[in-house]
Amino acid sequence: MAHKKSIIAITVLLVIGVVAWSLAAGQTVDQRGVLSGSVLAKGLVSIGATAREGDILVYVETITGPAVAVRANVDGVVREVLVKPGDKVKTGDVLVKIEPRKR
Asked: How far apart are CA 94 and CA 77, in angstroms?
């Protein structure tokens, strides 16, 4: 009986630990492209960069020339850049993830 109680206690502690870890990990906000095209190296944001709402994160080459594909929609820190120069992207693709600044 004591063995069964120990297993239950350990399981409960593990569940609490996983929940606490996921809350502490920080949530990210997807930054979706508004244009289709080929990602350009010029102006491509890097991981760890500070972004302010409205900052340009990604440029793409379109049939009319270079254009802004993604602007930040929150203030925060860039945690993931999901594209690299030369990648083909479509409207609505998630290109960057930002961890919002704590207020």
From this structure: 16
pTM of the complete model: 0.72
86 contacts: CB under 8 Å, gap ≥ 6: 38, 39
C-beta separation of 66 from 37 below 8 A? no
Answer for the pair 60, 87: CB distance below 8 angstroms, yes or no: no
Write down all domains in the chain, each with its CATH number in brackets.
28-100 (2.40.50.100)
Report the C-alpha gap between 53 and 55 in whole angstroms. Answer: 6
**Ordered per-residue pLDDT tens for the chain, 103 residues:** 777 888 887 888 788 766 655 555 569 999 999 999 999 999 999 999 999 999 999 999 999 999 999 999 999 999 999 999 999 999 999 999 999 987 6
